[in-house]
Specification:
By secondary structure, the chain is an alpha/beta fold. It is about 30% helix and about 20% strand. The protein has helices at about 55-70, 75-85, 100-105, 120-130, 175-180, 180-185, 210-220, 230-240; strands at about 5, 35, 40, 90-95, 115-120, 135-140, 160-165, 190-200, 245-250, 255-260. The longest helix is centred in the N-terminal third of the chain and has 18 residues, at about 55-70.
Length: about 260
C-alpha cells in the first residue's frame, strides 16, 4: 500500500443494525443481555444521535466517496476497503459500523461469524440490513468502556476486528484516552487476532486544502469530529502497547493501521 508515511512491522511491537437489536427489558444498565435470537445488547450510552437516517443514506457517497478522496486525500476504494477485505477471518467484529458500507462491500463469507458494534441502535439497524446477514449480532456499547463480551464463549473471542473512521468521532476524549479503545478491543481478541482501521488526524499531516478546511471546520463545530489534537504518533504508541506487530500508514490526512498478535498482560 503506497503512503506518505510508513512504519515497518514492529516486533515488541462512521458512524455506525435491525432485527437483532431489541429492547433491554429486564437488564440493568451496563449489563449485557442475551436476546432469544442470540444478539447481545449492552446499555445504550447516553449520547445524542448524530447519524440520523437521512445522514446515513448520504454517508457512502458524500463522506466515503467525495470527502475522503478530495478533502482527506485518501480513497476508501483504493486504500481502506482492500485492507478491510483481506483481513476478515472466521469470527469478525466491526466497530463503529456507520452505514454498513464495509460489511456490505467486502464480500464477507457466509461462514464468517459477524458481530456489529456501535453506540447508536439506528446505525446498527441500517448496517445489519445492508450486510444481508440475519445471523449477525448487533451490540450497542461505548468503546471507551470495557466491551460487553465475556471472553468465555467462542463467539466472544474475535480473530479479526475493524474500526474505520471511528476514533476521530470520539468526543470529550484526549488522543491518549482514545487509545483505551485498543486495550478494550485487545481483551476480546484471540491471541493471534488482527485489528485494522483508519481515522482522520488533526495534527502532523499535510496542510488542508480549501475543501478540507471547510469540511473540518463544519465537523468540529457541529460535534461530529473531536480530533484537533489527534496525531499518528500517539495512536501508534497505543497500538504498540497492545499488539506485537504494528504497521501504520498516513495517506493524506488519514491514519491507517494494522495490528496483530495480542500482547499478554
Amino acid at each position: 500500500m503506497p503512503s506518505s508515511h510508513a512504519t515497518s512491522i514492529i516486533t515488541d511491537t462512521k458512524p455506525s443494525l435491525v432485527s437483532t437489536v431489541t429492547s433491554r427489558s429486564g437488564s440493568e444498565a451496563g449489563t449485557p443481555h442475551k436476546e432469544a435470537n442470540g444478539s447481545v445488547v449492552d446499555g445504550k450510552p447516553e449520547t445524542p444521535t448524530i447519524y440520523t437516517p437521512l445522514r446515513l443514506l448520504i454517508y457512502d457517497i458524500w463522506v466515503l466517496g467525495i470527502v475522503s478522496t478530495f478533502a482527506w486525500g485518501c480513497s476508501v476504494a483504493s486504500y481502506l476497503l482492500p485492507l478491510f477485505r483481506v483481513n476478515i477471518r472466521s469470527n469478525h467484529l466491526d466497530i463503529g459500523v456507520g452505514t454498513g458500507y464495509y460489511t456490505s462491500k467486502a464480500g464477507i463469507p457466509s461462514s464468517t461469524r459477524l458481530t456489529l458494534l456501535d453506540n447508536e441502535s439506528g446505525a446498527l439497524e441500517l448496517a445489519k440490513r445492508r450486510s444481508h446477514r440475519p445471523d449477525a449480532r448487533g451490540v450497542v456499547a461505548d468503546v471507551l468502556k470495557p466491551l460487553p463480551f465475556s471472553g468465555e464463549e467462542e463467539a466472544d473471542k474475535f480473530d479479526s476486528v475493524s474500526m474505520y473512521f471511528l476514533l476521530h468521532c470520539l468526543r470529550c476524549a484526549t488522543p491518549e484516552e482514545k487509545c483505551i479503545v485498543f486495550e478494550n478491543v485487545a481483551r476480546c481478541m484471540a491471541p493471534d487476532g488482527v485489528l485494522t482501521g483508519a481515522n482522520i488526524l488533526g495534527k502532523g499531516v499535510r496542510r488542508d486544502n480549501w475543501f478540507a478546511r471547510f469540511i473540518r471546520r463544519g465537523c468540529l463545530n457541529h460535534g461530529v469530529f473531536d480530533n484537533r489534537d489527534d496525531t499518528a504518533w500517539v495512536f501508534e504508541e497505543g497500538l504498540r502497547r497492545c499488539f506485537a506487530e504494528v504497521e501504520t500508514w498516513v495517506v493524506g490526512s488519514v491514519f491507517i493501521f494494522k495490528a496483530q498478535g495480542v500482547k499478554k498482560r
